[in-house]
Design goal:
Layout lengths: L8 H8 L2 H10 L24 H18 L1 E5 L3 H19 L8 E4 L2 E6 L30 H13 L10 E7 L5 E4 L10 E6 L3 E5 L3 E2 L4 E2 L4 E5 L3 E5 L1 H5 L3 E3 L8 E7 L10 H5 L64 H4 L11
Enzyme class: oxidoreductase
Family: Belongs to the alkB family.
Catalytic activity: an N(6)-methyladenosine in mRNA + 2-oxoglutarate + O2 = an adenosine in mRNA + formaldehyde + succinate + CO2
Length: 360
């Protein structure tokens, strides 16, 4: 027996701090002076026990990963020869953009990533007057160029013939052109703008699509994903359900080791809000402007750029920390959920799910 008559050090500590049990029971029982209030968190039953949420968090993580995977369809449709032809067309888009041959809102440039909007374009990120979910707006009709004919002939028709999307589904095509080290921060494609599914086709090189990450800046850092989906050159990825609506997805800088381009094909909702919608009703689409001077050259990135600390000006945004229920407090996806906007359609309101939505 140890000195002082104690065989267990915990018994000695307990006798020295008699208030400890009172403090523990106060919050375990959820009472405070008999009021029934004051419940904060469940304490461990002993010093030797692991935190109770550790196993739960791991299990929730696995469950969420399964839900993500089950709501993704992926197919390899385009051959290397077909990819090469489409990649030539993408290079032509880049050249026309550099020559200023597109409408002003067709081309959107960011460090190590250029976006080309066709059919429909929308405001996001720093372009928003008010930040937050549900604030994105479509541009007026005619403010971005029409979908190129080669996208219809070489890409959309193949997807229709393979049963990926129905005829006439696509009215918005976006080309994202990434240089090594480029990225796009965690986001959910705006629910009030785009119908589901979200379809993307990858070109030039292999990469990965990550779900449930959190970005931090100065320097840029990305948390561990809930799920990582490899995306190969020529592969088609279809997001719907949980993967499209209830968890964010992103492209991490470390996953773009070579130039990569993706064509994103979507359908806008009939009731999607537009900028200046009132004035748009009485105005005709703007005339094509005089060719613009390129905003900057299409630079080639340093291969080590993925590891260089930097701030992405178009992607810079304060992290948001939603208030979640205590049951999800220790879930690794606690940053992935934002309450949906109240102005969504009834069938989306009835779902009652929470997502964290960021622009992209």
């Amino acid at each position: 027996m140890a000195a002082g008559g104690y065989s267990d050090l915990r018994e000695k500590l307990k006798s020295m701090t008699p208030h400890r049990d009172e403090y523990k029971n106060k919050y375990v029982d959820g009472t405070s002076n008999g009021s029934g209030k004051g419940r904060k968190r469940k304490y461990r039953e002993s010093d030797d026990d692991d935190y109770e949420h550790s196993d739960d968090s791991s299990e929730l993580r696995e469950q969420e990963a399964r839900r993500v995977r089950s709501s993704i369809l992926q197919k390899s449709i385009f051959s290397p020869e077909e990819c090469a032809l489409i990649e030539e067309k993408i290079d032509e888009v880049v050249s026309k953009g550099e020559a200023g041959l597109y409408r002003e809102h067709t081309v959107d440039r960011a460090p190590l990533r250029n976006k080309y909007f066709f059919g429909e374009g929308y405001t996001y990120g720093a372009q928003l007057e008010k930040r937050g979910p549900g604030q994105e707006r479509l541009y007026r009709k005619g403010e971005v160029d029409e979908i190129p004919s080669w996208v219809h002939e070489l890409v959309i028709k193949r997807l229709v013939s393979n049963g990926v999307i129905p005829e006439g589904f696509v009215n918005s095509a976006v080309i994202n052109d990434y240089q090594p080290g480029g990225c796009i921060v965690s986001h959910v494609d705006p629910l009030h703008i785009f119908a589901r599914p979200i379809v993307s086709v990858s070109f030039f090189s292999d990469s990965a699509l990550c779900f449930g990450c959190r970005f931090q800046f100065k320097p840029i850092r990305v948390s561990e994903p809930v799920f990582v989906l490899p995306v190969r050159r020529g592969s088609v990825t279809v997001l719907s359900g949980y993967a499209a609506d209830d968890i964010t997805h992103c492209i991490r800088p470390q996953d773009i080791k070579e130039r990569r381009a993706v064509i994103i094909l979507r359908k806008t909702r009939p009731d999607a809000p537009r900028l200046d919608s009132d004035s748009a009703l009485s105005s005709s689409p703007p005339e094509r402007p005089v060719p613009l001077k390129a905003k900057r050259s299409h630079r080639k990135a340093d291969p080590d750029a993925a590891h260089r600390p930097r701030v992405l000006e178009m992607d810079k945004e304060e992290n948001r920390h939603p208030s979640l229920s205590r049951q999800r407090r220790h879930s690794i996806s606690s940053e992935n959920y934002w309450r949906r906007g109240q102005d969504y359609s009834k069938h989306r309101e009835s779902s009652g799910r929470k997502v964290k939505m960021r622009r992209h």
